[in-house]
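The instructor's notes for this session suggest beginning with a concrete chain rather than abstract definitions. Hand out the sequence below and ask the class to guess, before any prediction is shown, which regions might be ordered.
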Amino acid sequence: MTTGLLAVIDMQRVFAEPESPWAAPRFAEAAAGVRRLLPAYADRVAFTRFLAPAQPAGAWAAYYEQWPFALRPPDAQLWELADEFAKTAPRTVDATTFGKWPCLAPHLGPDSRLILTGVSTDCCVLSTALAAADAGVEVLVVADACAGADDDSHAKALHVMDLYRPLIRVTSVTELLAEAR
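After discussion, reveal the predicted structure:
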């Protein structure tokens, strides 16, 4: 078993389905990496879901003017976890913000580490990683268990996060599982 909390960020239909305006082209590859990690973390896994707020306020109002398709209630199909994760997610936490740190923080103990996977590397994963690092949590971002809006954005986000070493470290599924042995 490995230590820390494995956070599976926003592996939802809205990012998985190719016809979605928010589809992550390498969602399937990220999902494969997540599947490899799940057994090593057992009950120390939290899936997150990005949801639209009931009433967007502030800058979020302009954001949803650009993406009106997303103004759906929390039980809308687009917000469901992708089929392969929907039935197996041990714990799910929801947020109407890109960064998931506030909803993940209560699930970590002192001196714990946060392992981030999911989508989108250049949005919700990045926002979560920076906030957790600012809180003093060791953050590992599993590059091959994440997917960005496109390959270039994914690579750039990983590069930026890796600049925060030792607070944030970019790793791979293989490296993380080898650490556990």
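Then share the key points. DSSP finds eight helices and six strands in the chain. The beta strands are 5-9, 45-50, 92-95, 113-119, 138-147, 168-171.
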